[in-house]
Amino acid sequence: MTVPPVGRRERKKAATRQAIADAALRLFLERGYEQVSIRDIADAADVSPATVFKHFTGKEALVFDQDEARESELIAAVRQRTAGQSILNALRQHVLDTWLPIAAHPQRAEFINLVDSTPALRAYAERMWTRHTDALGAAIADELGVDHDDLACATLARFVLEVPALARGRQDRRAAVETIFDVLAHGWRPPNESPAP
After folding, report:
1. pTM of the model
2. pLDDT confidence of 9, banded at 50, 70, 90?
């Protein structure tokens, strides 16, 4: 959903940003978040500390380097959905297309452990999650022509953003995502109750 940078200068900036983020994550996973300085990251990426700050607001942002792109992609999933496709089905497809590959990444467990074990990263992730919820809720509201503070839109946004956390650790993550979206689409019913004919 994001358009890759086309010009040479944009490609070089994107490559530098990615090199910095990759170096930071590698160092954080090797040494621990608190034991790594911006200078360490700059040295590992072969850039100056000023260049690191040109691309990232701080150490936390280095861990969540895809934050802005993920939010933009969520909003695009709603606004640029196929004609006739419901908002919920567009979000279901987006989660299946984007989160399943991330969840299968070999470093995913290490990444989750890094965030969960670092108070500054947990706090940053919570602020990021709240911002994504607000942005997605507003996009849904815009599509439906209602106020941004509409409770139904905010609720849907919040639950959609919870899907990865709820599906994490399940044997069949795809089936888990589908089950959660089915509940969102059709409402909850007890697991031992058969569906209505």
Report:
1. 0.80
2. confident
